[in-house]
Amino acid sequence: MTEDPTPRQKERGRRSGGRAGNQSRAGHAAIDQMPWRIPVNPDRPTEPLDAEGVQALHRGAMHILSEIGIEFLNPEALAILKQAGCRVDGERVRMDEDFVMEMLSHAPDSFTITPRNPDREIVIGGRHMVFVNVSSPPNAWDLERGKRTGDFETFKEFMKLTQYFNCIHIAGGYPVEPVDIHPSVRHLDCLYEKLTLTDKVVHAYSLGAERVEDVMEMTRLAAGLSHSEFEARPRMYTNINSVSPLKHDYPMLDGAMRLARRGQPVVVTPFTLAGAMAPVTMAGAVALSLAEGLAAIALLQYIKPGCPVAIGTFTSNVDMKSGAPAFGTPEYMRATQMTGQMARFYKLPLRSSGVCAANIPDGQAMWETSNSLWAAVQSGTNMVYHAAGWLEGGLIASPEKFVMDCEILQMIQRYFEEATFATTPEDIALDAIREVGPGGHYFGCQHTQDRYQTAFYSPFVSDWRNYEAWAADGGVWTPERAHRIYKQILAEFTPPLINEDHREDLYRFTAKRKQEGGAPTDF
Amino acid sequence: MTEDPTPRQKERGRRSGGRAGNQSRAGHAAIDQMPWRIPVNPDRPTEPLDAEGVQALHRGAMHILSEIGIEFLNPEALAILKQAGCRVDGERVRMDEDFVMEMLSHAPDSFTITPRNPDREIVIGGRHMVFVNVSSPPNAWDLERGKRTGDFETFKEFMKLTQYFNCIHIAGGYPVEPVDIHPSVRHLDCLYEKLTLTDKVVHAYSLGAERVEDVMEMTRLAAGLSHSEFEARPRMYTNINSVSPLKHDYPMLDGAMRLARRGQPVVVTPFTLAGAMAPVTMAGAVALSLAEGLAAIALLQYIKPGCPVAIGTFTSNVDMKSGAPAFGTPEYMRATQMTGQMARFYKLPLRSSGVCAANIPDGQAMWETSNSLWAAVQSGTNMVYHAAGWLEGGLIASPEKFVMDCEILQMIQRYFEEATFATTPEDIALDAIREVGPGGHYFGCQHTQDRYQTAFYSPFVSDWRNYEAWAADGGVWTPERAHRIYKQILAEFTPPLINEDHREDLYRFTAKRKQEGGAPTDF
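Output (C-alpha cells, whole complex):
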C-alpha cells in the first residue's frame, strides 16, 4: 500500500470514470437522510459575558500579546514579525494592540471553500455552520473488533462514511491515522483516497513543507485547476494548533504561511486545557487561547492581508483527580460560548468541536457530545470539527459513534429550519383547530394531510417504537443499530463522480511523489 | 400492604424519630454529589419568535379562547365562569381577551413552596429552575429485572433516589404506579412513604376530591401545621393536564380548584402532541396548548385572585410513520422555547420536562434527554418535570436512567455557576500566565493549587479514564455503572429526619383513612 495506489484503487478510479454519465448514483438506500445543505443558525448566541467581560477578555489577550509575548519557533516568522515592527527577543515576540487590531481588520469575516465538486462549496462565517468528520485519532473502535490501531482500510471506511452523510460537509484530517503506511508517503495515499472517495472540502496537515505542497497540488489536480485558478479562491484549508502555553511550532507556522500565501484558509486552534496547559480558571484559559490564536492570525494577515482565517477554540478542563482531559463539560460549554463572543468581537469565523471523554458510544458519550454540539450552536460556531465519530478524548474514532452523531447533526439542521418556529396563519392553524374541535383528533384533517410527510424530523438510527415492538424486534440498543447502519453504508457505497482526466493526473502525481520517497520524516 | 403501613414501615418511622438528634446523617457515601441548591439560570433565553411572532401566538390563543372555546367538563367550573361573564354554551366556554388578561394580571410571576423541612423550600419563577423526579410511568425497567409493572417496592426505591439526589428538588407524582396497591388507598400508602422517605416538596394527583383533600391533610400533618398555617403559603402542589384538544375534565378541574382555594399551587400542562391531539404545525400546537392552559389559569385566578399557578408545556410531535409519540426532537425543543417566550409574555412561571422516546438508557435516550433538558434551560423553564428517570415516552421509569440524568442535572447546575464564565483579574490570571510562561505547565503553580479542588465539575457516573484504564477495570458501560450506583444508594439510604409526633399524626390519619376505605374508584 505504501508504494503506489493498489490495483483495486486504480480499478475503482476507472470504474468511477466509466460511470461519469450516471447521475442517479446519489440515491443511497442504507438510510433515508436529509439532503446536503449549508445549515444557517437562526439563534441569537448564548452570551455569558457582559460588555465589561468582553473588554476584560480582550484586555487580557492584548496584555498577553504585548507584555508576556508568544514564542514563534520559526525563523521566517520571526523575521517577518520583526520587520512588521513587533518586539522580537530571541523566539519571544511581543505585539501591540494597535498592530494586532490592524491585522485583524484585514481578515474577512466570512469566506467560501470550493472543492473539486463545486456543488459541495461551503461557507465559513456569518450564521453558517458546517460539520467536519472526526480527525486524527490514532485508534479505531467498533463493536465487532474493539479497540485497535488505525490502519488504511479503516481510514477508507471513515472516508466512505464522510462522503455518505450529507450532514458532513468537510473531509477534515485523517479520521484514523493509518499507521500501516509509512509517514513519508502517508499523506499521498490518504489524500488520493480522500480526493477520490469524497468530493468534499479537504484539509492538509501542516506537518512540513513537502506535505503541505503535495496536498495543495493534489487538490488542484483533482479539480483540474490551473495554478492561478487554484489560488483565485479557497480550495482546501489547514488547521494549526499552538503548543500551549504561548508557543507556535515550526511546521504548523510553515504550513500556515504556505497556505496563506496561496489564498488558502488557515484555522488557528490553540489547545488550552485548563489546569494543564492553561490557567485553571476558564476565562484565563480562554484569554490564553485567544492570544495564541490572534498572534498567528496577525502574522498571516501581515503576510497576505485579507487571507481567509478562522479562530478555533479547544479549551476544556482536566479531571483534577487524575489529570485526564475532560470534554463536553459545563466548563467546556462556557469556554466555547465565551470564545464565540470574542470571535464576533474580532469579526473572525469560529471553529469549535463535537467532543467527549467517553471510551465507547454509550450514554456518557452522547451527553458529553450533546453538550459540546449544543455549545457549538449556542456559541455561533461556524465550523464544527470532530462533529461525528470521536471517542476517548480524540484517541478513538468509532463508526458507530459516527452514525449516532450524524443523527444529532441532522437534528440540529432540522432545529435550524424556520418551519419549526414559524408563526404564519397556516402555522397557527386556527381553521384546523376549529374544524377538529374539542376531543377530536388531527390525524385525518386536511391541514395534517397536506403536511405530514415533511412536518417533523425523521430519524434513521433512533428507534421510536414502544418497548414491546422494539423488544420483539430483538431489543437492539443504539450502538448495535448504528453498527448495522455503518456496515450497510459500506456495503452499498459508490464513490462520487470524478473527471477521469483529473483522476489520472492525480494518480500520476501521487505515484511519482511516492516513487521520489514522499516527505522527509525527521520532523 | 393495602391495609395499613407495614411493620417495617412503622419500625422505620420510629427509627427515624429515634435518630432525631443525629445531624451528621446527611453524609452520603455512594457518590460525591453537589450540595442542595436552587439553581439560578443566568442565560438569556433562546427566543425563536420575534415580537411579531409573539403577537401572532398571543392572537391565536386569544382567538381560540374567545371564538372556538374550551370545554369544561365540570358543572361547578361552568357556573363560576358563567358568573364571571364568560359565554357558556353547554360545556363550551368562550372567554374574551380582556377577561383572560385581567385574570392573568392577578397571577404571581414567582412563588415559593415550603415542604415539611423548610430547608427544602423551593422557588418557582424568575430565573430559578428546579428539577422534579420522573412521574407516573406504569412500568419500571432496570438492567437486572428488565421491564415489569410498577409496584410499591419499586415506588419506594425511586422515592429513595428522589431524596438522595440533592439535584432533585421535588418529589413529584408517583415515579412508578404501584399497581399492587388498590387505587382506593394507593394515594394514602404512597404519600405516607413520600412524606417520610423524603422531606422535599410533594405533589397531589387531581384524581377526585378525596385524594386531593387527603394529600393536603397528610402534607399538613407531616409538617405539624395548623390549617391556617397550611393555607398561609404554598406547601405542596398539583399538576393538571387538559384533555387536548380543547377540554378540561372533571377531576383535574376539581382538584385544581380545591388547591387554589387553599392557596396551594396549580401547574396547568396541556399535552398537545402535534399531528395527533394538536395541529401538525408547531406554532399551532403551541397556540392550542397556551389557550388550554390559560383557560384553566383564568378560572383559578377568578376563584382566588393571586393564587400561585404555572403554565406547563408538553408539546411534542408524533412519528408520522407510526403515530408513536416522539420526545426530545428538534420540534419539541422549539415548542418549549416558544412556550417560554409566551410564559414570559404572560408573566407566568413555566414548567417543561426531561423526556425521551428511547426504551433503554442508551445513547438515544441521552441525546433525546439532553435535547429536552437543554431546551428547558434555553426556554427559561422554572420547573423541569421528569428530570430524572424517564424512558419510553413516559411508560417506563428506570433507576439507571435516574442516576444518569442526575449527572446531566448536576452539570446544568454547574453550568449556571458564575465561576464558569467570570472575568475578574483572578479569573483571567495574567500573573499565572506570566509565571508559567511558554511551554510550562499549570499543574504546580499557586493559582492552580489555590483552586484545583473546586475548579471543575466533578462527575459521579461519567468515567473519564482512558480506554486502557477503563478496560482494565472491567470495561463497564454507563448503564451498568449507573446500576451499581443505584444499588449502593439504596443500600446505604437513611430516611430524612421527621418529628416523631408529626409522623405519628400522619400515620394515624393514614391508617384511619385506609380503614374507611380510602377514595372511591369509580372515576
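DSSP finds 19 helices and 21 strands in chain A.
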